[in-house]
């Protein structure tokens, strides 16, 4: 059975209109469908504002969908409050900036223990033991247990956030830009820790990042988002050479690699507003291949092989990339 399923999920925010009349709608997420299997890592890529964080928030229960269904192990997330509580235990989240995600006044041990206290897991002695185990699991020395976050380095703080996210033994971890606020020198350590934990705990993971090459390294599948829509969902090994959507190809071609030389695709013009998305294909206003037909309807899902779908009527051809 799949771990997580999003089925036609929309998130629309009502905002005050810039004009005289009423309110506008921001289409943060539109018709998103996605499946995550146990132990699988899904990388989510796309430019700023394309809806990556909204997708992450819907999955962890921080953002209610306007429409559509989110299921965890087959149970809908938003239908019954009791089910929703289960979600809190089964899905952990780590955020971009560990400095703001941790309570500055609490000790490290208290922060890691907090989810165990909230869910009243075990006796106080068992909780203390679990905190020791979790700190060891993420590579934090026992000596920092009584410290407060301000006394730790950025990398150590992210380890604390990871320990807290794993406290209730979730089967899915959502990581939203988990290394972008860290020094380059510690990024690799945190990524390796996540890879190691994924293996050891058979964690499913949704890994959101601007850093395309990291996403490729971390993920089994890559989901490309544009203007609130998932435009391609492909095995990581198929990206970038077999990417069918011109936007996926453009994103990956913008980060040159000696090993993977592909013709750069230069995108011109700004990303359109999520308040007034274009008709038809959301990418057509910046797409070098767009035709009049692209304005008529949102391209349906096409298949490019096992587990590979894309929404484009002028797909890219395969290129040879190692
Ligand atoms: N609470 C809100 N009210 C109004 N608009 C919102 C709200 N939250 C998000 N949006 C809008 O929804 C769209 C998607 O935002 P989201 O934060 O999900 O994008 P993102 O891809 O995560 O961006 P970034 O990479 O910059 O974090 C954006 O246009 C954003 O301005």
TrEMBL record:
SUPFAM superfamilies linked: P-loop containing nucleoside triphosphate hydrolases
UniProt entry tagged with the keyword ATP-binding: yes
InterPro entries: AAA+_ATPase, ABC_transp_ATP-bind, ABC_transporter-like_ATP-bd, ABC_transporter-like_CS, Oligopep_ABC_C, P-loop_NTPase
CDD domains the record matches: ABC_NikE_OppD_transporters
Gene3D superfamilies: P-loop containing nucleotide triphosphate hydrolases
Keyword ATP-binding: yes
Record domain ABC transporter: where: 4-252
Keywords for this protein: ATP-binding, Nucleotide-binding, Transport
Record-level Gene Ontology MF annotations: ATP binding
PANTHER family reported for this sequence: D,D-DIPEPTIDE TRANSPORT ATP-BINDING PROTEIN DDPF-RELATED (PTHR43776:SF7), TRANSPORT ATP-BINDING PROTEIN (PTHR43776)
Family, as annotated: Belongs to the ABC transporter superfamily.
Protein name stated in the entry: Peptide/nickel transport system ATP-binding protein
Species annotation: Amycolatopsis viridis
